[in-house]
Amino acid sequence: MTSVPIATERALPAEWRDFLALTKPRVMSLVVFTGLAGMLVAPVVPPLVLGFTAILCIALGAGAAGALNQWYEADLDAKMRRTAKRPLPDGRMDRQSALHFGVGLSVFSVILMDLAANHLAALLLATSILFYVLVYTVWLKRRTAQNIVIGGAAGAFPPLIGWVAATGEIASLPLLLFAIIFLWTPPHFWALSLFVRSDYAAANVPMLPVTAGVEATRRQIFLYSLPMALAAVAPWPLGLAGPLYGVVAAALSATFVVMAALVLANHATEPAQMGPEKKLFGFSVLYLFALFAVLVADRWMMA
Amino acid sequence: MSVHEDEVVKRQRDRARLTAWLLGGFVILLFLVTIAKIGLQK
Questions:
Q1: In 3-state terms, what secondary structure has residue B4?
Q2: Residue A54: pLDDT above 70?
């Protein structure tokens, strides 16, 4: 980590809104949703208060990981337009507060998960936080263009944690859900990184469009969308989901692959002309929400 | 007090109030979790 051009002597104490911003609430919403879906598709429904607490812990753990990520990356965030207004690069908060907040929230979420659910769920939550902070943020992000491929595993944990919080054990369906998010992450992030490429280049972050170029990134997006689509449909032929899920997952995944093909066919280098990339990025979020929502609906209809 | 000091006090008070609410919520949640866990063991 390099020195950070951040205000070390704050004129004012940070507001609670800044602490909230530190948790990346938008990312958290997807994490909470996939964690909840993992819990709702499990064969055991936990008591309401325990289920609520487990999901709260997943949200707090994701928020803690986001806070620690922003603590470590404050110097990078300051160089990128997209992130320059975050509390640390904007000088609204001192780094020590962010560190204390992130570590405190991490420990708190894991202990509470252990109390409300079980040891395995707490262990998985701790692993996901450590993976995001140490493996992705500290180790991979500044070193390799494969940062998002390996680091994406951190974001794939929530449905697994939700399932384990309900059942106490790991099974094939939550592992498939893990695989879906793991394979979805690269095309999702690379679509974004194509049209904010100059930001990553300015901050010297080796994202794929910076190191390998836009055409290679477009090829990778398309190639990753194929196994992702197969993993998304797999629960149906494997008997883990019914035809409702199978048909909707196939339609959604086919749309994703077609949109990835449109990205592949686009040869623009200017962000203003990257319509297919922006559409794929927007659709990818909707895709994951819809896929998990229909899986829950399907499993409940099968029950 | 200056405007600046007023703002510092206001922010500290806001944060203290929120922390108190969160701690109160946590105590209630822990109580409910304990009751639910006892119910599961019966």
A1: helix
A2: yes
Query: A49 and B32 in contact by Cβ < 8 A?
Result: yes
Of A11, A15, A50, the CB nearest to B33: A50
- Residue B6 is predicted with a pLDDT of 87
Q: Which ipTM score applies to this complex?
A: 0.84
Q: Is B15 on the interface with A (CB under 8 A)?
A: yes
Residue B22's H or E segment, with its range, is helix B3-41
Out of B8, B37, B39, whose CB is closest to A12? B8
Asked whether the beta carbons of A68 and A106 are under 8 A apart, the reply is yes
